Amino acid sequence: MTHYLKYVFVITTLAGVNTAYAQAKTQEHYQELEVGVGGNIKHTNTDVNYKNKEFDLHIHPLWESRYVTEGRDNLAGNGIASIATEFNYKNFAVIPWAAKGISSDYSELNLNAIYTAHLSERIEMYVGYNYIKAREEGIDAHDNELSLDFAYLYADDIQLLSSVYHSFDASGTFLELAVKKDFYINDLLLLDIQSGVGFNAGYVNDGHNGINNVKFTANLSYQLFNQLALYTYTSYSIAVNKDEKRFAGDETLRNIFWGGVGISYQY
Question: Read out DSSP for 127-169?
Answer without folding.
Answer: EEEEEEEEEETTEEEEEEEEEEEEEEEEETTEEEEEEEEEETT
